[in-house]
Amino acid sequence: MELILKQDVQNVGFKDDIVSVKAGYGRNFLIPQGFAQLATPSAKKVLAENLKQKAHKEAKVIADATKIADAIKALEVKITSKAGGEKLFGSVTNINIAEALEKAGISIDRKFITSGVVKRTGKYNASVRLHRDVIVDLPYEILAEV
């Protein structure tokens, strides 16, 4: 029995896959639970059209993310924080990096910025995930407040 999966099913396949399963498993579990639908010719055409539209939207999102990545690569981010010598009073986290990017005109949510907790002045790198396929390294420098 051929089915189109509506969502990921463990040991069967992923969303929008066309899979072959035993008739009883499909009829008694997958279809009633809403995990799949029959793979009729019309359903296959609808799926192909949906995948085509999704790929077009995905390409646009990736292009936008790439533009933002290029803008981030051109930035020189400097963060000032109170410090005694080289040791900071407190720490610099992804929240501070997001605020520095906001000042530079790039709005990115802090959850998409990955950096360790930094407690010393110096140069560091943060990873910014703009899309699952577009990840950019952001070099930044922490300076002591004068």
Give a structural overview.
- The protein folds into 2 domains: 2-63, Ribosomal Protein L9, domain 1 (3-Layer(aba) Sandwich); 67-144, Ribosomal Protein L9, domain 2.
- It has helices at 23-30, 41-73, 94-103; strands at residues 2-5, 18-20, 36-38, 77-81, 83-84, 87-92, 113-114, 118-120, 122-131, 134-144.
- The mean pLDDT is 93.
- It is α+β, with helices and mostly antiparallel strands.
- It is elongated and about 70 Å long.
- The strands form 3 sheets. Strands 4-10-9-7 form a 4-stranded mixed beta sheet. The chain has a 3-stranded antiparallel beta sheet with strand order 2-1-3, with helices on one face.
- The chain starts with a strand and ends with a strand.
Summarize the structure.
The protein is 35% helix and 34% strand. It is α+β, with helices and mostly antiparallel strands and 146 residues long.
Structure classification: alpha+beta
Side by side, the strands of the main sheet go 4-10-9-7
Please work out how many helical segments DSSP would assign.
3
CATH architecture of the largest domain: Roll
Task: Please give the alpha-carbon distance between the first and last residues.
Answer: 72 Å
Q: Could you name the ranges where pLDDT drops below 50 across 5 or more consecutive residues?
A: none
CATH homologous superfamily title of the largest domain = Ribosomal protein L9, C-terminal domain
